[in-house]
Amino acid sequence: MASTLVRAACPHDCPDTCAIRVTVHEGRAVKVQGDPDHPPTHGALCTKVSRYPERSYHPERVLQPLRRVGPKGSGRFEPVSWDAALDDIASRLKAIASRDPQAIVPYSYAGTMGLLQGESMAARFFHRLGASLLDRTICASAGGDALTATYGGKLGMHLAHYADSRLILIWGSNSIASNLHFWTFAQQAKRNGAKLVCIDPRKTETADKCHQHIALLPGTDGALALGLMRELVVNDWLDHDYIARHTEGWPALRERAMAWTPDRTAQICGISADEVRGLAREYGTTKPAAIRLNYGMQRVHGGGNAVRLVAILPCLVGAWRDAAGGMLLSASGWFKRFRNDAALQRPDLLAGRTVRTINMSTIGDDLLRESSPGFGPKIEALLVYNSNPVAVAPESPKVVRGFAREDLFTVVLEHFMTDTADHADYVLPATTQLEHLDVHTSYGHTYAMINEPAIAPLGQARPNTQIFRELAARMGFDEPCFRDDDETLARCAFSAEIDFATLRRDGWVKLPLPEAPFAEGGFHTPSGKCLIDAPGLGVPDHVANHESVLSTPELAQRYPLAMISPPARNFLNSTFVNVKSLRDIEGEPVLEIHAADAQPRGIADGATVRVFNDRGTYICKALLSPRARPGVVNGLGVWWRKLGLAGTNVNELTHQRLTDLGRAPSFYDCLVEVAPLSS
User: Fold this and answer.
1) Cβ atoms within 10 A of the Cβ of 314, count?
2) Selection from 588, 593, 488 nearest residue 202 by Cα
3) Please, how many CA atoms are within 13 Å of residue 247, restricted to the half-sphere of its CB?
4) Are 363 and 357 in contact (CB under 8 A)?
5) DSSP bridge partners of 292
6) pTM above the 0.70 mark?
7) DSSP label at 223?
């Protein structure tokens, strides 16, 4: 029997959104490879996704509905039929909804970025039910709101043009691990003579390959941007014409920036004044200059203001005049005019009802709240899909306590028995990307994508769309939209400007956009200008961390080390942690610590340590490494708790305080102490 090639797309929370070709032989996916014809993917896949068949055919896949028979968290379940599971789930949801449907909360994020298996039929279901809405803030909303305030949307450069840049600032991004296809264009620029500068508290694999690494302290990116602005002013490295014609509010920010001398900037950022001066000189005098910003730097208290400040820099030097100049944090806003979100998600099904919104980043606190006029009804039911909150949500001791409530009814749609699934009342087997239809946008490039099912669903697994479709029928939701099949959903996901026949034939369609989008202004703000003094926000400023030596000196006396928790190279959030070949590469949970911090604490390389603060204790192995700068430790994540050395992970230590914009978590804004386990 001949093999067939099926066009697919990577579903994961990554800017690359790769086009994939799946080789299928006798009904089994035997190989996945990057599509060589798709310009951003150019035939390459990351180590993680190249093992996707291993994940889909994993012996521990959940392939039948499961009902809990042991204590929550014990992982003790029994198999049940789909009919029995869905009937009971619907019955229990009806009982709760009869009191107040807002006591039912959806919890999902980007386990798949697909528009169908993400928020299409699921959103219709919850809108019709009148359940609480979910504020999906856990990853990117601080930076997203900052970009929207400044540019009018989540907009940026085209990926391929980085190959023609002469200077690239890779700011808060370990691109080799988390944005591989940008890195290939950056490498092309480097071969053509461009200078690459990595700005990151951690000496990442990307920093190793750049010409310069500036290891600033976590949460000081806004201060660095202000310091650069002052040098641009003092040395007259400004594009006065671009500023005058295409920005609003520069005089007020100019005045603020003048207070940020190189010495002051260096003191706050933990770098040298010469690094500030040198970086400003490079940025102010090199044309075209580009910035690749990523979301790590906005996971601190002042993350929103920091993104606003960095986003203003290209306007000050006129970098946007060239297609190879400017900045990219997210390209997802380019899809806004091409998406039919209202048709997919049907918010009209709320029928005029006003319902509360729960912030996914404070789920630990919210699951422990009682009913009140301010909060609304106590949360009685959670339906979790495309997420693993027990592992990934901040301040996990509280998250675990909430999920362990015996009076909380929890349904989890999953591929595996994750930490969250262990706390469910029902676990429903969901299909993987190889087994269902979906369509995708991207936040790293400007191509719409389609994912065709390559194989039949394994076992009794069903697509998310089908599960919510069948739940809707059992709830008595008889609107015709609940009978839309996935083909119908896919065809209504995009506007007519994205030709569905072309999408299906080629696997992807490039958006019709200008190559140098802001060469003559044209930002998506009401005035068409970059808003420096944004309505309701004013002029951006450096905002100190919730926890730092400078902002909380008494706390820092007890917990003197700043901790960031970037992803381990071979995991993607908590996805792929249970893929043995990838976990074998990572080894075990580690904390990178600089020798200057380890030695006075009596910590040897490879020693088991306890990392602790007032919120909890995390047990892991210490790795004495130059990747950690003095004063900062790197707790690589996100391991499943049950695979940790003591049944916890790094989120045992993070808190639920939010960012300045976007209501997002401050994962990288965290003080800790470290000690040998035996002490």
Assistant:
1) 25
2) 593
3) 26
4) no
5) 170, 328
6) yes
7) H
